[in-house]
Amino acid sequence: MSDPKPKQLEMIWPEDRPAPAAPPLPPEFELRLLRDGEEEAHAELMRSAGFDWTADRLAEWRQRQLPDGHFVIQHRPDGRLAATAAAYHRPTERHPYGAEIGWVAVAPEFRGRRLGEAVCAAAVARCRAAGYRRIYLKTDDFRLSALRLYLRMGFQPLETDADMAARWRAIREAGR
Question: Which of 48, 69, 105, 155 could cross-link with 150 by S-S, CB 3.0 to 4.6 Å?
Fold first, then answer.
């Protein structure tokens, strides 16, 4: 019998901190909102980043999405979607008035250009503009590049269970 999948890690954006400034994008990229009709292009981006994703799954998540809250970065020369992140109304017991930054992805061929940071900054700014003080995200231990990004941006780890301190310590050590 295999071990059950560990509970996802959670991070929060400090309530007293304004939204982060988006980094400048290289000129061949454009930050914008996801448009109707781009569902398959979005699904292709998500799959390229390692997520089990379909256009139908996007439709489910869009029901929780803040208006004007799904960001993409388009590669201008070929029109492909290079990165994405979204802002969701997602209250939970721990975050009763919370917004979640979710489904952050960057296509492998476009990594290393701060595109993930740009879409995350846009999503946090959208949550702040909507009045959310509690902004959080969830991710997995093995997504080390995403975790490094979130920590660098200023998200703070939440230690929600007894094993979390050790998991966060392992992540920090892996990042050295």
Answer: 155
Going by C-alpha positions, the residue among 137, 30, 153, 146 that lies closest to residue 87 is 137
Contact by Cβ (8 Å): 127, 90: no
Query: Both tokens of residue 60?
Result: 């489910």
CATH T-level fold of 13-140? Aminopeptidase (3.40.630)
- Of 32-36, 90-94, 140-144, 160-164, which one has max mean pLDDT? 32-36
* Cβ 104 vs Cβ 85: under 8 Å: yes
Q: Which amino acid is at 116?
A: G
46: amino acid identity, one letter: M
Average pLDDT over residues 104-128: 97
For 52-98, write each residue's pLDDT tens digit.
999 899 999 999 999 999 999 999 999 999 999 999 999 999 999 99
Residue 120 burial (CB < 10 Å; 0-12/13-18/19+)?
Answer: buried
- String of DSSP letters for 82-136: EEEEEEEE---SSSTTEEEEEEEEE-GGGTTSSHHHHHHHHHHHHHHHTT-SEEE
Residue 100: which of 130, 143, 72 has the closest Cα? 130
